[in-house]
């Protein structure tokens, strides 16, 4: 119908509105109503174009990883009160998409001779305060020089990466270095739970000595159950998909990109929905906890 009204508008000086409306079997009142709303439609189209531009800027700033929820949350943080369905429609119409996470290969190699620690988490990946619950794991990043192994520790209260280490091996040294970094910068409380899988790196005497030295409590999920360490598994999927690189040219390049992702983007800029505070970055969530405790 809009095309019919647009034709009448274009030809009205030649044939007259009444004649064209009779010819095309439309009511003159409907044509004039459409004409009166033309200015409003122009304003809305201009507003939509401006919003599309903002969506693109936020999407590019997120390394082209944000979908509708985080783009909408970022707009609200910037003071833009806009309907989420409108954001979704414009992103869909202009091909602005977030990333979806893919499965990863497991590095868990259980030590059958070692006695595993009990599961102190029980799939409850929530913590009331920072420094009370950590989850850790190892993943492998493919490079042209061979695998680069990455060990990380996440604080469950903030989902901040508080400790990480990279090497061309995945011996116990790798996870111990990451744990010591977490203890140094994560303000861990005595008795903090360090939850992980039953890989041989985590059941080694070297790792257990570090756990005791740092006054932590070790917790282990079951062998072969990714759901027992789902928070760490989810972070690996997020990291690999949002970095975007499938194979790095060398380990140095992979190290640099992982460092940049964790330190400049994930911890400080990437929004995550907290069940109490709403959309915040991990660093902002930590500060919110600290201010709440101080208050």
Automatic annotation (TrEMBL):
<dbReference type="InterPro" id="IPR025948">
    <property type="entry name" value="HTH-like_dom"/>
</dbReference>
<dbReference type="Pfam" id="PF13276">
    <property type="entry name" value="HTH_21"/>
</dbReference>
<feature type="compositionally biased region" description="Basic and acidic residues">
    <location>
        <begin position="108"/>
        <end position="122"/>
    </location>
</feature>
<dbReference type="InterPro" id="IPR012337">
    <property type="entry name" value="RNaseH-like_sf"/>
</dbReference>
<dbReference type="InterPro" id="IPR001584">
    <property type="entry name" value="Integrase_cat-core"/>
</dbReference>
<dbReference type="Pfam" id="PF13333">
    <property type="entry name" value="rve_2"/>
</dbReference>
<dbReference type="InterPro" id="IPR048020">
    <property type="entry name" value="Transpos_IS3"/>
</dbReference>
<comment type="function">
    <text>Involved in the transposition of the insertion sequence.</text>
</comment>
<dbReference type="InterPro" id="IPR050900">
    <property type="entry name" value="Transposase_IS3/IS150/IS904"/>
</dbReference>
<feature type="region of interest" description="Disordered">
    <location>
        <begin position="99"/>
        <end position="122"/>
    </location>
</feature>
<feature type="domain" description="Integrase catalytic">
    <location>
        <begin position="126"/>
        <end position="290"/>
    </location>
</feature>
<dbReference type="Pfam" id="PF00665">
    <property type="entry name" value="rve"/>
</dbReference>
<protein>
    <submittedName>
        <fullName>IS3 family transposase</fullName>
    </submittedName>
</protein>
<dbReference type="InterPro" id="IPR036397">
    <property type="entry name" value="RNaseH_sf"/>
</dbReference>
